[in-house]
Amino acid sequence: MVTHKPLANKKVVITRPEKQSKALAKQIENYGGIPLLFPLLTIKYRENNEDIARKIEQLSQYDWIVFTSINGIHAFFKLLPKESIPILHKKKFAVIGKKTANVLSTYGFAASLLPNNYTAEHLAEELIQHANESSKVLILSGNLSKPLLRNKLEQAKFPVLEIVVYDTVQRVGIQNEFITFIQEEEIDFLTFTSGSAASVYLQLTKENNVNISKYKIACIGPITAKVFTDESINPTVIASEYTSEGLLNAIIKYYEEVKQ
């Protein structure tokens, strides 16, 4: 049990999709904070898609399977026919993040490659070092994934196929509810774990002429933070470890330094 309560009575908003919010919410509570869940996005798997199904049927051709997120894993295994699962035991897996590796293990597979830095750029660099030059790479991604990983591998002359297996979309009809929420709640921190959530936040507040200068913002890493800095908004904290734990630690560090 955590006895140190640096977030005592602090209201921390979690904007990530609801299913992914529970662990962070529990951690906030453990440190005395009050988590407020307001997901700006929702995840939709691309099921019953004939084009994707045809591509996945070619699974045996690939040596490496790459997942950049937990959502990609869940979507892939929903799409994968049961009779194709034995083929996976002959493949190597590369992932971004320990949590992604942990989710992969729940399906019975271990990550062969997990970079220390949780970015697509570092994953590409390490995969180029570890894979044979003739290795074929299959990337399972979302609709908002940037092409950096695929581009770097293609520049290194690896045969690459990227399949978009899920969509990250703005929740429908949340505009009025969200604006009322942030204006009426006494919020201490807004947290953002993706650039897409940050973009939705900026869009909603701009369209409704909300003065956001009073809100403290916490970003999971520099890529998410860049969405704000591109609009001349400096996040209050940016996590140095690109995980929900790192995000929480950055907020705790902020309050501990304020007290000094």
From TrEMBL:
Domain Tetrapyrrole biosynthesis uroporphyrinogen III synthase: 23-248
CDD domains registered for this protein in UniProt: HemD
Pathway where this protein functions: Porphyrin-containing compound metabolism; protoporphyrin-IX biosynthesis; coproporphyrinogen-III from 5-aminolevulinate: step 3/4
Keywords: Lyase, Porphyrin biosynthesis
Superkingdom of this protein's organism: Bacteria
SUPFAM superfamilies linked to this entry: HemD-like
GO biological process: protoporphyrinogen IX biosynthetic process; uroporphyrinogen III biosynthetic process
Keyword Amino-acid biosynthesis: no
EC id: 4.2.1.75
Top-level EC class: lyase
A single MF term (Gene Ontology): uroporphyrinogen-III synthase activity
Reactions catalysed according to its record: hydroxymethylbilane = uroporphyrinogen III + H2O
PANTHER family per the UniProt record, alphabetical: UROPORPHYRINOGEN-III SYNTHASE, CHLOROPLASTIC (PTHR38042)
Function (record text): Catalyzes cyclization of the linear tetrapyrrole, hydroxymethylbilane, to the macrocyclic uroporphyrinogen III.
Family note: Belongs to the uroporphyrinogen-III synthase family.
Name listed for the protein in its UniProt record: Uroporphyrinogen-III synthase
